[in-house]
């Protein structure tokens, strides 16, 4: 149905310069496939495609996978405007899911480290021994 680039980023180190592009393909049935190209001065490498994306949560997981597994540098916040521009019905759903996730996240209590007592209690409750390392400074 349609192909477009969600984002292009240029990267450089002391040894090389390359460009990463996040490509989006939308089939007639609305299924999305994401692919990534990395181009340096000599060649373009294509990473394996991620297909079967049908829901905003699928899309979010696909972006997270690309970031985690392929050292991508994208975030949903960065690419959602291009997605809305090129595929408005789906892009607006993704944007809504981002705002919903942020409001849920902001309502959570800040994380804190569990004490050794809490670890032991948890260990007893589930019937397993957990390894608890006490920092050398506290010993």
Fold topology:
Elements: E1 2-12, E2 17-26, E3 32-39, E4 44-46, E5 50-53, H1 56-70, H2 76-86, H3 88-107, H4 116-126
Antiparallel strand pairs: 1-2, 2-3, 3-4, 3-5
Helix share bin: 40-55%
Percentage of β-strand residues: 25-35%
Give the number of domains. Answer: 1
What is the N-to-C succession of helices and strands?
Answer: EEEEEHHHH
How many angstroms separate the termini? Answer: 64 Å
Instruction: Work out the number of β strands.
Output: 5
Low-confidence stretches: 127-135
| SS content category | alpha+beta
Q: Characterize the overall form.
A: globular
Number of helices: 4
Largest sheet: 5 strands, antiparallel
Radius of gyration: 21 Å
Give the integer mean of the pLDDT values. Answer: 79
Task: Provide an overview of this structure.
The chain has one domain. With 139 residues, it is α+β, with helices and mostly antiparallel strands. The protein is globular and about 55 Å long. Strands 1, 2, 3, 4 and 5 form a five-stranded antiparallel sheet that branches. The chain is built from four helices and five strands. The chain has helices at residues 56-70, 76-86, 88-107, 116-126, and strands at residues 2-12, 17-26, 32-39, 44-46, 50-53. The chain starts with a strand and ends in a 13-residue tail after the last helix. Helix 1 (56-70) crosses helix 3 (88-107) and helix 2 runs antiparallel to helix 3 (88-107). The model is unreliable at 127-135 (pLDDT under 50).
């Amino acid at each position: 149905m349609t192909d477009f680039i969600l984002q292009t980023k240029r990267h450089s180190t002391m040894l090389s310069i390359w460009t990463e592009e996040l490509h989006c393909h939308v089939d007639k049935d609305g299924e999305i496939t994401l692919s990534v190209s990395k181009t340096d001065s000599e060649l373009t490498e294509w990473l394996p495609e991620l297909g079967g994306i049908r829901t905003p949560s699928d899309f979010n997981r696909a972006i997270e996978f690309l970031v985690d597994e392929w050292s991508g540098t994208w975030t949903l916040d960065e690419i959602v405007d291009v997605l809305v521009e090129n595929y408005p019905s789906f892009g607006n759903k993704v944007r809504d899911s981002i705002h919903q996730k942020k409001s849920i996240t902001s309502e959570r209590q800040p994380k804190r480290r569990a004490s050794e007592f809490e670890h032991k209690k948890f260990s007893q409750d589930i019937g397993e021994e957990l390894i608890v390392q006490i920092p050398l400074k506290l010993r």
